[in-house]
Each structure stands twice: as structure tokens, then as C-alpha cells.
Amino acid sequence: MGNCMYRCNDGETDILQQSVDNQLSNMSSVHSSYGTSTFGRPTTVATPTTSTTRTSIAQSVASNGDRSSSVYPIHNNEDEINRLQLMHYMVRYGWEGNFSAPIHNILKAGKAKVLDIGCGPGTWILEMAADYPHSTFIGLDNSPIFPSAIKPHNARFYQADVHDGLPFEDNTFDFVHQRFLALALKEEEWVPLIDEIVRVTKPGGYCEIMECDFEIDKQGPVTQTLVEAVRTCIQANGVNPYMREKIEELLSDTNMIVDITVNEKVTPFGSWGGRWGELVSDGLRMSASTFKPIIQPTLRLSDEEYVKAINHAVTQEMNEYRSETKMYRIYGKRKTTTVPTE
Ligand SMILES: C[S@@+](CC[C@H](N)C(=O)[O-])C[C@H]1O[C@@H](n2cnc3c(N)ncnc32)[C@H](O)[C@@H]1O
């Protein structure tokens, strides 16, 4: 699977490892108490406010009811794992780092616990575990594409579905990270997941959510057709392609996250954007194969026509139009004190 560069620490009686193992056995019991379909309801999260976004999403939950079906449209095969690994390196290159929240010193000091939600092949976790050997890193994904046997002593992976709640106790993590999960969540699933993120983050800890804009700016006609096809398919699944715009407000509405910061990065497609643009294009080209089974029927293109359209959009059009999008990291700190309610 391409993640076997780490040696196992078999037999190493490491106190951190022990604490993770304890944590993992706790997870199982917490997990089973969540039942079959709904999110674990946090006891420590403030009562939702009545902001428009949160209220409209809550109404949507009430009218829809079903939150349990998975809408994630992508097959986690070998190509997808390669794509996610490439995307990881592309993101790290463009952002010059794996996260934006001010947690370097906390992680460096050691004994910090970090969760990555929807960790995929675990590339982020493996790198972070190597960068901060005295902290503990846990990746969670509902698809077991993460390393199962060979991993650093301070990294663990756990198979779980976010729709069942996060299988951890309250106030467990110093940092909770979630990147590119937008296609896996219906609009109404965001509020309960954010509540869960807040619940498992320690007071004074940070959470960070990374997503990108769905739209491509300055796009040519072929690009526009491809983007529209993706939009049609994901909207049919109940996914709001513009959810990224609401994340800051959703975090703020919990009344538990402060110092919310939104960092954005213009992300060019193509060699006109230098090395960064080339990497982004490579990622997009691989995404085209990922999305092929999803959008090809809508586009009614043969295999050959599909490949031609992608090549035209990525190699020619995006350079000609100087197409770009934006990526965002939205992070905040969990309040250290709870304001007493009347
Ligand atoms: C686009 S990938 C992002 C992977 C990783 N965060 C990264 O940035 O490289 C989305 C990941 O979310 C996982 N996923 C989808 N639905 C999920 C769910 N309901 N619960 C947990 N993980 C889920 C997928 O298996 C996939 O690995």
C-alpha cells in the first residue's frame, strides 16, 4: 500500500503506546454505546444557537430523518490511495506544512493526543507521528485503507464511521484535524459531526477543518461542463458543494470554539502557477479517474471522449484561462471555561 517505510516497534514497552492501547479499548466500549445510526450526543457541547445556518440545517435533519446512509461516492482502490497520497504532498507543499493551528509547541512538548478524521491511507498521521515522536496520533476512517501492521509506535488507526459518532471519550484530544471530508457528508450531517469534534477536543485544544472551494475560477467551457457534472452528481446525494463557506459559522455556533481563524490559499491549476500549479494539475488528473465512474454516465461520453475532455481541460484550457480555486483551513480553540447557563 506504499506506507511500509516505518519499522514496527514490536515488544517496545512504551508508556505512550500503553496509553493509546487503553484509549483504544475505551473506544470500543464508548463506540458500542452509540447504537446503530445516529451520532453520539455530546454532553459537553453548548446548546445550539439559533443562527440561520445551524437552524436551517437542523430543519433539514428534522425533515430528512435519515442520517445514516453513506453518500461518499469514491471507491478506495489502489488508484485512489495513490491519488490521496499525491494530494497530501501537494497540500503540504502549497501550505508549507501539515496544519495551520498554533499547536507546534504543544505537539513538540509531547504527550499530546491528535485525531485525524477520515484519515484515508494515513499519510498525514504517519508524517505527523514522525515529526512529533513524543505525541500520539490516531487516524480514523470507515474504510481500512490505512496501514494495519507496520506503523510508528506513536500512531494508531481505527476503523469507524463518523455517522456513528466519534468513538472517544469527551475531552480526549489536544488537536482534532479533518481534511477533505466534504463529499462524505450530507449537509445535515455537518452539525452533529462538528458537535462531536468539539466534544472530543480538550478545553484549550484546537480543531482544524480543511476543505476547498467547489468552483473553479476562470474556467473554460470544457472545465465548466466537467465541474457541472460533478456538482449534479454530488447534489443528487444530498451533499452541498458549498458547505465550505459555512464551516466557520458552524464552529462558532457551537459556542465552544473561540479564536476561529480562516486561512485561505489560492490554488492554481497548471504550469502557469509554477511547481504548485503543476502538482495541483497532477492531482486533478488523478481525480478525473476517481470521478470517472461517477460523472461519465451523466456526461454520456465514451472512455476515449472522457480522456480527451480531461486532457483538454487540464493540459490546455486551465493554462489558457489561468484557472484557479481556493483551499481553506478553518481552525479554532476550544474554550477553557464553560459559561454557566441560567
Ligand atoms: C477525500 S478522502 C481524504 C483523506 C484524507 N483526509 C486526506 O486528506 O488525504 C476522504 C476519506 O474519508 C473517508 N470517509 C468517507 N466517509 C466516511 C465516514 N462516514 N466515516 C469515516 N470516514 C469516511 C473515506 O474513506 C476517505 O478515506
Structural notes for this entry:
This protein has helices at residues 15-32, 52-64, 78-95, 104-109, 123-131, 190-200, 221-236, 247-253, 274-299, 303-321; strands spanning 113-117, 136-141, 155-159, 173-179, 201-212, 257-268, 324-334. A 7-stranded mixed beta sheet has the order 3-2-1-4-5-7-6, sandwiched between helices. It is built from 10 helices and 7 strands. It has a domain at 15-29 and 47-63 and 72-213 and 242-268 and 325-334: 3-Layer(aba) Sandwich (Rossmann fold). It has 342 residues and is α/β, with parallel strands linked by helices. S-adenosylmethionine is lined by residues 70, 72, 76, 84, 87-88, 118-120, 141-143, 161-163, 179-181, 184.
What is the CATH topology descriptor of the domain at 15-29 and 47-63 and 72-213 and 242-268 and 325-334? Rossmann fold
The CATH superfamily of the domain at 15-29 and 47-63 and 72-213 and 242-268 and 325-334 appears as: Vaccinia Virus protein VP39
Which term fits the overall shape? globular
The portion of residues assigned to helices is 40-55%
Largest sheet: 7 strands, mixed
Order of the strands making up the biggest sheet: 3-2-1-4-5-7-6
How do the helices and strands follow one another from N- to C-terminus?
Answer: HHHHEHEEEHEHHEHHE
Mean pLDDT: 83
Structural class: alpha/beta
> How many E strands?
7
Organism: Paraglomus occultum
GO molecular function: methyltransferase activity
Biased composition (Polar residues): 57-71
Protein name: 5415_t:CDS:1
Features:
alpha/beta, 42% helix, Methyltransf_25, 7-stranded mixed beta sheet, 342 residues, binds S-adenosylmethionine, Rossmann fold, methyltransferase activity, SAM-dependent_MTases_sf, 5415_t:CDS:1
